[in-house]
């Protein structure tokens, strides 16, 4: 059977609504992504509830602290058996190494490089004098050499990153299906394009969660892959 690379981003404030949506589309996605907002609101209980669907769980917690604290946090989430956890590459080599060492055996640890909300001026204001692209490449290299499984990157970058890091695990958000009502947007990357360029995981939220018919939307995306 073909492994479905789509992780549904459940960025809904209510646990019951998130659960209902996940249950509806469960047969047409490969996993569930839970972010910081969900985790702060619903904690371990919320994750346990969604585990009942039997799908892999991606905890997008973007951890960033001293190595000892991040390693402790990784150990504290073992019990949730996440398939993927994110940390910030900007936390440095020792933090990444310790996070990976503390992760469960079947847990991919993936680094966020530069948040897409930051531009060159934002980086300059925190003392980073490179443009976001150059800084992202530098942090990707650091994550690789620190022994992480991969990085989070955009659909525009995944092809180039994949060429540099052949066996990397690449998590790609910000995707839009071709006919998802975004026909006017010029630079969309479709789930299929990202997968062909080397994405391991396709993070998709609103194109499914805000669709009039989420099940039909999930099926349509699955059919393109
Ligand atoms: O846009 P969409 O709802 O598909 O986003 C899915 C997930 O991807 C969200 O949880 C969002 O936080 C994440 N995302 C991201 N970086 C982007 C765009 C979206 O991490 N540039």
UniProtKB/TrEMBL annotation:
Q: Which residues bind substrate?
A: 11, 33, 60-69, 116, 176, 185, 205-206
Sorted UniProt keywords? Decarboxylase, Lyase, Pyrimidine biosynthesis
- What Gene3D superfamilies does the database record attribute to this sequence? Aldolase class I
Where are the catalytic residues? 62 (proton donor)
Q: Which EC number(s) are documented for this chain?
A: 4.1.1.23
User: Subunit notes for this chain?
Assistant: Homodimer.
Q: What's this chain's function?
A: Catalyzes the decarboxylation of orotidine 5'-monophosphate (OMP) to uridine 5'-monophosphate (UMP).
Q: What is the official name of this protein in its record? A: Orotidine 5'-phosphate decarboxylase
């Amino acid at each position: 059977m073909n492994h479905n690379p789509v992780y549904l981003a459940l960025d809904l404030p209510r646990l019951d609504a998130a659960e209902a949506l996940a249950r509806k589309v469960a047969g047409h996605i490969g996993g569930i992504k839970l972010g910081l907002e969900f985790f702060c609101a619903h904690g371990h209980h919320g994750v346990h509830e969604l585990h009942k669907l039997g799908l892999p769980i991606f905890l997008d917690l973007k951890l960033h602290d001293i190595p000892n604290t991040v390693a402790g946090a990784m150990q504290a989430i073992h019990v949730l058996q996440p398939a993927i956890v994110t940390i910030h590459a900007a936390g440095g080599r020792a933090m990444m190494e310790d996070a990976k060492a503390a992760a469960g055996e079947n847990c991919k640890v993936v680094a966020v490089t530069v948040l897409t909300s930051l531009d060159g001026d934002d980086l300059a204001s925190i003392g980073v004098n490179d443009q976001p692209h150059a800084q992202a490449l530098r942090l990707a290299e650091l994550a690789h050499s620190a022994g992480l499984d991969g990085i989070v990157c955009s659909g525009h970058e995944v092809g180039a990153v994949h060429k540099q890091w052949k066996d990397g695990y690449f998590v790609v958000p910000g995707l839009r299906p071709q006919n998802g009502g975004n026909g006017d947007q010029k630079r969309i990357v479709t789930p299929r394009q990202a997968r062909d360029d080397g994405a391991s995981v396709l993070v998709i939220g609103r194109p499914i969660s805000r669709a009039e018919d989420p099940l039909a939307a999930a099926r349509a995306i699955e059919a393109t892959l």
